[in-house]
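Dig into my protein:

:::
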Amino acid sequence: MANLLDQLKGFTTVVADTGDINSIQQYTPRDATTNPSLITKAAAMPEYAEVVDEALRWAAKQAGDGAASDTIVGLALDRLAVEFGLRILEIVPGRVSTEVDARLSYDTQGTIDKAHYLIALYEEAGIGKERILIKIAATWEGIQAAEVLEKEGIHCNLTLMFGLHQAVACADSGITLISPFVGRILDWYKKDSGRDSYPANEDPGVVSVSAIYNYYKKFGYKTEVMGASFRNLGEITELAGCDLLTIAPSLLSELEATQGTLTRKLDPANAPGMNIERISVDKATFDRMHEENRMANDKLAEGIEGFSKAIVNLESMLAERLTVVMSQ
């Protein structure tokens, strides 16, 4: 009998949710995703010290003699994300998601400019934009930026996705891929309800992603759904059949170690017969639906704040390391 990971790969594209290159090598996913927290965690590992130092040396050279340390660190921040991306792309056959600075989440033009810069860094290293997904928070401003980028042929992954209004706005804007956060939705509902747990098929995150998936398939959208942020194996198995699932190494290991029969739960063939109402989402509707959805409102703001803090922590780490690199 095959393990659950091998069976899952039969009808869902498995993506590694990590910046740890060794873990990616172990589980052979098609794609990989990173975010500021994962990059910060990886950058702190001794085995990646040289990756950090290379990014700082490159940034110092770009900034020129006499440049302020914060200027160098700012350049190194983007370079480091790309350095990890380049190493990941040596392993995976598909794409890597590289995130725009979360502090630009409500800045449409700033997000577009940063995406252009990241793509330029990849292209300088010989990597075409078809292998990159620019990861952007699914604010209204972020979705508008992604729509512009998609029209330029730069593919995007809209993250921090918690509500159907975000998903519909992304699909209407022609976004390549969205990442609804299963586990973070569960976290909110457990705290709000006081419950310790939910059966896997009633897990609010599973229910949310299933609804988005079926909406997309019902109305023929091309935008891919990639479930993310899992807390347990049940969430993953309940979403078997989703276009993609991005899974942390600990859960990939658990899937690989578990024998049993995995049943496909999401199937595009089932969507046409479902009674699903089509909705139109303009900015006013988006804002209203977002305000009415306490969970999405809370988790989007919390996610942006958390990723922004991770970036600040990484900047501090880089600034500290810069003094060592410059003295060598």
